[in-house]
Design goal:
The structure holds 2 protein chains of 2 kinds.
Chain A (H helix, E strand, L loop, with lengths): L2 E3 L4 E5 L4 E3 L2 E3 L6 E7 L6 E7 L6 E3 L2 E6 L4 E6 L8 E8 L5 E3 L3 E6 L1
Parallel strand pairs in A: 2-12
Antiparallel strand pairs in A: 1-4, 3-9, 5-6, 5-10, 7-8, 8-9, 10-11, 10-12
Chain B lengths: L4 E3 L2 E4 L5 E6 L6 E8 L3 E9 L2 E4 L8 E7 L2 E6 L8 E8 L5 E2 L3 E5 L1
Parallel strand pairs in B: 2-11
Antiparallel strand pairs in B: 1-3, 3-8, 4-5, 4-9, 5-6, 7-8, 9-10, 9-11
The chains are: A mainly beta, B mainly beta.
Chain lengths: ~110, ~110
Amino acid sequence: AQKVTQAQTEISVVEKEDVTLDCVYETRDTTYYLFWYKQPPSGELVFLIRRNSFDEQNEISGRYSWNFQKSTSSFNFTITASQVVDSAVYFCALSGGNNDMRFGAGTRLTVKP
Amino acid sequence: DAGVIQSPRHEVTEMGQEVTLRCKPISGHNSLFWYRQTMMRGLELLIYFNNNVPIDDSGMPEDRFSAKMPNASFSTLKIQPSEPRDSAVYFCASSPEGVQFFGPGTRLTVL
């Protein structure tokens, strides 16, 4: 069975602080994909990143970075120098080879000015 | 590209009525997914299609729910009869391979 755990329900930071959103997953598949999506207050789900299980290289995109560690089954997401516009619910998700994507419960990030 | 299109964006109906949600996937995407989002249960996959064929409908809550994809550019999710506990945001997503792109969702309220 596949499972994604986002233990942090809510996080609140002040603008310009760095913040890390945790994601831990469980799967028996040897090939799988990990994702992060952002859901701003407007409600749409915005794709941020996909990682496959064979690529543990960390990735940086502007203020966003992702740390994938198979040894701890984690795929954490860090926002550097947070901004008010980063306020949203962030979902981590896992998909095996069959397109069956499982989402975590989400972490609500509030960035205060 | 217009992205995934869903209609209506908001639907308010009374218990017992039939509700039909519509989705137009991104052109060229061969997979289509229907999700439901509630506070209690989060994001749940209801059903997905590959090349217009339903592949996995194990997430459909009960027989009141049905989904069709008559062609590559259109899908419907129908609830008949609707119940208050069906109130949720329903998302449609499409995918060429792997990454799913979501529509804006339909907020359904069943009174």
